[in-house]
# Entry
Amino acid sequence: MTDGTQTATTLSPQTLRAWIDTHEDLIVIDVRSAAEFETQHIRGSYNVPLPLLSEHTEDLAERLGKRVVLVCQSGVRAEQARQRLDGAGMGSALILEGGVPAFAAAGGDVVRGAQRWALERQVRMAAGGLVVAGLVAGKFVSPKLRALSGAIGAGLAFSAATNTCAMGNALARMPWNKTASEPTAADAIGQIPAQD
# Structure
């Protein structure tokens, strides 16, 4: 039970734009994959993909100050990162509302590189394609193959309930989502200046 007050965990793109110009102690951490980061990222942000952050949360938390903003494509992975950092005693991290696309749409300074589909879009395409394939195969091959559509639906419901995404994790490992410079934990965390 709480006392009715809730700590804000999100930050608007407009506020982040103002903070970038006025706060030298600001650290923006992009928790998307290196390939997504390469496609488009906030100028001056640091790429620490969520799997690396999850494995080295304490190391990262030791380097961070009080003004930290976590970004991803939509906010889901940033929230997972915020929860991990909160568990490591760094409870002041904020999540950028709407992720990198919202920041770019608000006129924020972004760096654009090779264009790829966002991981969330890939998940929607893969899940939709598998559901359709299951229905078509169930009609023309064997009715038992309709179970594929049910399994995908159950997986999506589980994903929503647990705020995780096994399909997204699998797609992130695909060759088209890899870059030549996938960061190591030492590189990703070491690039962030230590704060007092």
